[in-house]
Each structure stands twice: as structure tokens, then as C-alpha cells.
Amino acid sequence: MTTETFAPPSTKSQVLRSFDVADFPALNGLEEEWRFTPLKRLGALVTASKLDGVAPAVEHGELPVGVSVKHVDVKQADQAEAVLTPFDRISALAYGSADGVTLIEVAPETEPGEAVVVRVVGKGGDAAAARTVVKVGAFAKVTVVLEQTGTATLADNIEVVIGDSAQLTFVTVAEWDAGAVQAQHVKFRVGKDARAQHVQVALGGDLVRQFTSVEYAGRGGDAELWGLYFADAGQHFEHRQLVDHTVPDCRSYVGYRGALQGASAKTVWVGDVLIRATATGTDTYEINRNLILTDGAIAHSVPNLEIETGEIAGAGHASATGRFDDEQLFYLMARGIPEGEARKLVVRGFFAELINKIPVEELRTRLGDAIEARLTEAGA
Fold this sequence. Notes:
This protein is of the alpha/beta class. Helix content is 16%, strand content 43%. It has helices at 44-47, 74-77, 89-97, 326-333, 339-355, 361-377; strands at 2-4, 57-60, 67-72, 101-106, 116-123, 128-136, 141-151, 153-162, 167-174, 181-190, 195-202, 207-216, 222-231, 236-245, 251-260, 266-275, 283-292, 298-307, 314-322. Strands 1-18-16-14-12-10-8-6-4-3 form a ten-stranded mixed sheet. The longest helix has 17 residues, at 339-355. The protein starts with a strand and ends with a helix.
């Protein structure tokens, strides 16, 4: 078991932002933002100046009244002010290479009785780019699930705009086939008195690197970022967040949990929260917990806070990485539960809070079964 923590990098408010991939220098792995990432495994996502592969297919069933999913050209999607201005090379590459945008729109005051489920299905082939825009109108209340399956080498951006007083639960599931590679940036803009809850799940793929950023467009915005990841032998899962508080009286909470098993399983979590001088009354907290199940797995966990004003409601962070709690195992085994089953129960309990954040019963059950299947395959 290996755990590493490091001092925070230079201020996030000063990073380069550009839509043009040529404005970003070539990556060499020495950059603060990329030093944990095995760049060679990203292939063309690092070396190319344009991605020409075919983007994954987008599928969905019957949609509730007030919800639409359609493919639009880039100009049509960008009629409004850009939500995401890339601040890394691959995000800019995705922006410049995507030949269209998947637009998911929820009309104002819409409250569907069921989740909106959209599937992104990779068909393989050359490295590709994709863009998705989610727009939730004022006073709407909706759950959107984005499932990512199949195989791909993909750079993609997801831009989420939540109107004033709207509520969005956004669930993204990376359940790629073995060998898939993904570098993704998810950007939220949270309106006045709006609430965003993002549940990010990573189980499949060879290398999945997901960056989530949040900005606020009005007072009273609330963002909760939850993450669940389970890395098996050889998998690399990397999750980074940047919550940028520029508006007074907003709240954020970040809670990510991961489990690792098998030789060279590796996870990275870097949580950055920036509270600017104008963001008085901010209330924020972030925590990352990792459970190491076998020798040879490595977890990196780096929480960072930048605070430019003392007039806040609260700010804090925490990080913990460890093995099974021997007392929990002893308690269960003392009641006649075999060790293998006891381990499964402990892992399910470790993830239970996050799985229960997903308001779709079928998906909760499927994820729980997938986690248990991994433990069974490893002989837990």
C-alpha cells in the first residue's frame, strides 16, 4: 500500500484557459496537473493536434415530456456564452475536434417522474472527440443518467448549465470495456438558488481521467460532487475537481470513495477548492477515502484549499487511505460469517452511502452487483 500527499500547486485562478489546442505546450508528464497520469497510455490524446475518429453513438429510449436529446452543430450549441473554457490541452483538443454536440435540454419547471437515461456507446476505432451540453431550465427538477460503455479512445467535454432555482441530479457511469481510454472534463454552472448533485462512477476501462469543475452564477448555489471508483489490476482511475467560489453565500461538498485491488491498480484523487475574495459566506468541505484490498495497489490523495477571504461560513478537507478494519471483520466473523463474505459486506458498506445517492433503483442494484462480482473474481 502506498499513499502520497503533496503541497498544493500554484493558484488555480492563474491557469491558462483557451479554446485553441495550439496555445497549450506539449505534455511531458512533469506538469503538476499530469505528473500522476501515464501519458503513453493516452496515446493520440496527448500527441495529436486534431482527432478524426468517429465519436461514440448516443442512444436513449422514450423521453419524458419537456426533455429533449438531439445532435446539433457546434455553432448552434455555442449561441450562448461558453460554459467551459478549457484549461488543459486535451480538453481544448476535444473542443476543437468535436464535429457536433449532443444537446440534452430540460424545459423550465419540468419535473419528470423518472430519470432521463442516455447511453454513450463506443465502437472502437481511432481516437475521437465528443461534446455534450446539458441545459436545465429554471425551477426544473430532474435526474439525468449518462452511461458510458463499449470501447473508445476518447477526449470529451460535458457542459452543464443549471438555471435559477433548478435541481439536477447528474449521474455519470464510466463502465467501459477493457482497453478503453478516456480523458473527460465535466463543467457545471450553477444558477441562483440552484442545486447540483453529481454522482460520478468509474468501474471500467484501462485508463479513465475525469476532471470536474464548478462555477456559480448567483447567490445560494449548492453543488455536491460524489464519486465512486473501484480499480482492478492494471487500471488507472484519476479524478480531479476544481470548485471555484466567486459568488457570495454558496455551498459545495465533495465526497469521493475508492477501492483498489490487484497488482498495479492505481487511483488518483486531487480536490481543489478556490474561495475568492468576493465569495464571502462560502461553506465548503471535501473528503476522499480509499480502501486498499490487496498489496501492489497505489492510491494518491491530494486535497487543496485556496482561501482569499476570511469571511466564510466554513472550509475544510480530509483524506484517509487504509486497509480493511480488522475490528469490523472480527465482528462479522465472530457471528459465523465466512471471511470472504465478511469482506464483501465491509466493501458494500464502504460504498453504500454513495450508491444510495443514485435515485435509480435498477442502477443502484447493478452497481452493487458489479462491485461484488469483482470481489468474487479476486477471491475475496
